[in-house]
Specification:
11 helices; 15% strand; 44% helix; alpha/beta; seven-stranded mixed β-sheet; binds D-malate
């Protein structure tokens, strides 16, 4: 397909295939603790979504279904027909788009700090304005804004972990930030997709998430016919790094129950 972007990725372990998708504007490295812990039991695939990390960053609108097709193309190249998809935030939006496009290729979904709602008008307008600004001012402006709400309240923003994530966001190419913002602005409501899902599902919610309201995630878990909800105290929008062990334990239990 003409629009597919070949994704940079890392691959670990053997066994049931599990895709771990990062959120915006990060890359696969946010999942390092989970990759270290789970690679003895599962075949883990950690892509950088288009415009992020070491994947190409073409100009354009990165619609969620397009990003899902990039991941399907990667799985095709690896001869993987079916996989569990675990998505953080924007990676969760991509996971929902994948579920809509090809449910027969999904063996389970893990939704981490994400939600199925489309943007209200003011949020959509804000994303489009950010997309324009980042192309002239650089990605640092997005990192400066996001770092303030990324972690649970009280998190030390001068800590080494906060600095690592700030630098990671700042390094995301402006074209990637703009493309993802424009794509997220167009994403549809996915509630019906989740209600129709017939796969094992896990929702992980940081109780201190300042970007996605935990109540919205609780509702998402209720909308999924089979979901288990794991609420993690002391975590905000980045549970895989703020409470890495608790996130790994939830994922491990979920994946072992599937396969
Ligand atoms: C993310 O972490 O991927 C973003 O916060 C998602 C969004 O902007 O909606």
């Amino acid at each position: 397909m003409a629009d597919i972007v070949p994704l940079h990725y890392l691959e670990y372990g053997q066994g049931m295939p599990v895709v771990l998708l990062h959120g915006f504007p990060f890359d696969h490295t946010i999942w390092q603790a989970q990759a270290d812990a789970l690679q003895d039991s599962f075949h883990l695939i950690l892509p950088d979504l288009r415009g992020h990390g070491q994947s190409p960053a073409p100009a354009g609108v990165y619609r969620m279904d397009l990003m899902a097709q990039d991941v399907f193309a990667l799985l095709d190249a690896l001869h993987i027909e079916r996989a569990v998809w675990v998505g953080h935030s924007m990676g969760g939006y991509v996971t929902m788009a994948a579920l809509r496009a090809a449910p027969e290729r999904i063996t389970g979904i893990g939704l981490v700090a994400t939600h199925p709602l489309a943007d209200p008008d003011d949020r959509r307008a804000g994303r489009l304005a950010t997309a324009d600004e980042v192309l002239s001012e650089g990605s640092g402006m997005v990192a400066q804004t996001m770092i303030k709400t990324m972690f649970a309240p009280g998190f030390d923003l001068d800590s080494p972990l906060a600095r690592v994530l700030f630098d990671l966001m700042s390094r995301t190419p402006p074209l990637g930030v703009a493309g993802a913002q424009r794509g997220m602005a167009e994403r549809p409501n996915s509630v019906e997709t989740l209600r129709a899902a017939r796969v094992p599902a896990l929702v992980i919610a940081g109780l201190g998430d300042q970007i996605v309201n935990p109540d919205v995630m609780r509702q998402m878990a209720r909308d999924l016919p089979t979901a288990r909800l794991v609420e993690i105290a002391g975590a905000g929008h980045m549970p895989m790094v703020e409470r890495a062990d608790a996130t790994t334990a939830a994922l491990s239990e979920f994946l072992r129950a599937i396969g």
